[in-house]
Amino acid sequence: MCQLLALNCAEPTDVSFSLRGFAARGGLTDHHVDGWGVAFYEERACRVFVDEKPACQSPVADYLTRHPIKSRNVVAHIRKATQGGARVENCHPFMRELRGQQWVFAHNGDLRPLDKPEAGPYEPVGTTDSEAAFCFIMNRLHAHFLTNADVDDLDAVFEVIQQATRVLNPFGIFNFVLSNGVAQYAFCSTRLSYVIRHWPFSSARLVDGDLSVDFSERGTPADRTAVIATTPLTDEVWTACQPGDLLMFRGGALVHRAHVAVPAHVLASSRYALSEQSALAA
To answer: What percent of the chain has a predicted confidence (pLDDT) above 90?
Structure first.
């Protein structure tokens, strides 16, 4: 399946180190070759870059690792297609606008078609289950904040996302990251990990490449960075999320956690998928 990466930082941060290791998983150290994408928030605006080429061969990925963009919130994705072809419109992250905020979403998993699409203004452009799920969440947010206008109430946003996740959970594997440029939301359906870097910093080495960085040489006491990924990117001590963990990060810190139970049939299908991947690798 696909791989997720998200960063939430207290200060604008150069994320090229994480992005370099992550891009290697797009066809070099792993088999995710059906496109990739990344979104960088800069204040209220969001830049989204997508490419249907494997990340390890993408000139867009190469450019971004050589010309880093500093950001407080980043969402990235490398794709192994389960639904929808390797086309630009099917590459994550997807972006939509809601009440003056740009929202981005990326998903790792495989969802059956919804029984009934959520009513609202958001519809998929491409043909993926992921974008359909994103539109479901956005339509839920739109309906809530149509009458409850304070979209800056992050606890209220968290509650809507939690309820939408509860509805979507039974339809299949649903690991995702979602951001509005202020906070980073992440859900572990089957597999997700995170690490929080803070003062005093240490060094880290990429799992997917011969590159290390000593963050103590560039970090300050004001810096704090949460890195969320499907599997750890570095040799640091990462925290493995438990299935059902819904997390909210802000300012580089974990500020809210809830549990949304993952159905047994979803966990069973995940174990089967992982055993199939291991057999293919062998």
So the answer is: 56
